[in-house]
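Hello Y.,

Per our agreement to keep a running log of every chain we model this quarter, I'm adding this entry. I've kept the format consistent with earlier entries: sequence first, then predicted structure.
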Amino acid sequence: MASDMVDIFRELMDMYPEAAEEDASLARYTSARIGGRADILLRARTSEDLIKFATWLWEHDQSFEILGGGSNVLISDNGIRGVTLLNQAKALSFTDADGEIKIWAESGANLGAIARQAAQKGYSGLEWAAGIPGTIGGALVGNAGAHGGDISQVLVMAEILHIDNGRMRLDSDDLNFAYRTSDLKRMAKKAVVLSAEFKLHTNSKKDIQERMYANLGHRKLTQPPGASMGSMFKNPENDFAGRLIESVGLKGFQMGNAQISPLHGNFFLNKGDAKASEVYALISEAQARVQEKLGIHLELEIGLLGDWTDQK
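Predicted structure for the entry above:
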């Protein structure tokens, strides 16, 4: 570790001894169980922690990566240099004012868990999200969606911390949501999502749960179990990445302990101690073969985090 990072770590440890950890394994914080180590891991357990840590790091000219549920990222075998801010801010509240349902959640809260809690209360609007493993923050950044719904349809407001503008409240329309993207994604390194507010509506618990279980059943039939990052590539317009990968004969293709799922071509699995470099080799093979045979470029949906020197 560079000497300036040693000094930063010592200062962080002195100020936040219960939150800071040196040389921390990151694989355990990802859904694929893949990735190297963080020079420094800072655990933020509340949105106030996020504000405190991000502000301090920016004031000291230290960039950092934010890791939430780890479901749509691939972390390099080399790990992440500098500071990784682990978002564990999970406070949640429901309010019902004459049938107008509002959910407020910190950005580290799990989207799928919130959807299931809403269904149990008879609150409709998040049935599509019941099986999504990521956090609220990640869902906002990537406009998470499934089964014809997405986060932009229910979002009222997001609160963020911006490197130049401080704490801000942004309406859904301010974020320019599009397929798997938003202005928050375009603000990478310059903003941290703190919390969000959503608007739902009441409905029959039976109807809500039937829709939710139908979505979960479809997900179970079409998406593989096991350690993965979720959908690897964005779907090209009027087509599906999984279908394209299957059409070029790559379903079930394996490199080392990383495999393109035999069930769904857009899911890449860790079959046991897979390396990030093996997953990336599969990514490159899928992109090259689909481009060569079909003339279509597959764009990554997941994010690549960390030091990829000599890994690609």
